[in-house]
């Protein structure tokens, strides 16, 4: 009997506690923080693709060309930690028209360029050395951590401002935050505006193939505030 009474008492206390928790007045809001900044770095992903009828010859030719590309990158004063091979592949490809196999060798390299003024010269040199594919050009900032932190702070400020707007007509005040959720998605910021023009142009004119624009760092949060 005592055990039953104890269980009932615990259940009653648990239910009472749950009811008290549910009765806490709260306001749930979201906030967004955005920071725009001109990038000072660019991450370039390039590939060299070689095709042929013999796997061994295709691989040798691809290796020879990629060796020249790596040497050019080093001559361009790119630090060794700022470039690396991303992917190496050698695949058979069946030609249904000729009813035989040919082979495709591909090597991909990623370069972090920390001086945007060198972009045109680097890209032109890479093309001259044999690269035949530009997979991606991604703008970055060397201060990304600080910018992300600033964006989160702006998001929290916006959330609190919203909460204060909601309760301003109710005669209440916004109290402590009891729950904060980070809803930001992990992504690499894209430039608001950028363009790559053709490398075929008037040789007498200055080369300007990149309009870097700005990148945008965004943070999104959800916050639950107690109402006082």
Write structural notes for this entry.
The structure is a single chain. The chain is α+β, with helices and mostly antiparallel strands and 228 residues long. The protein is 34% helix and 36% strand. It has helices at residues 2-22, 55-75, 119-129, 144-167, and strands at 26-37, 41-52, 83-95, 100-113, 133-140, 174-182, 215-227. It is elongated. Residues 189-206 have low confidence and may be disordered.
Question: Residue ranges: pLDDT <50 for 5 or more in a row?
Answer: 189-206
Average pLDDT score: 83
Integer-rounded radius of gyration: 29 Å
How many DSSP H or I helices? 4
Proportion of strand residues:
35-45%
Query: Could you describe the largest sheet, including whether it forms a barrel?
Result: 4 strands, antiparallel
Q: List the strand order in the largest sheet.
A: 3-4-2-5
Structural class: alpha+beta
| Tally of strands | 7
SSE sequence, one letter per element: HEEHEEHEHEE
Fraction of residues in helix:
25-40%
The backbone outline, from C-alpha atoms, is elongated
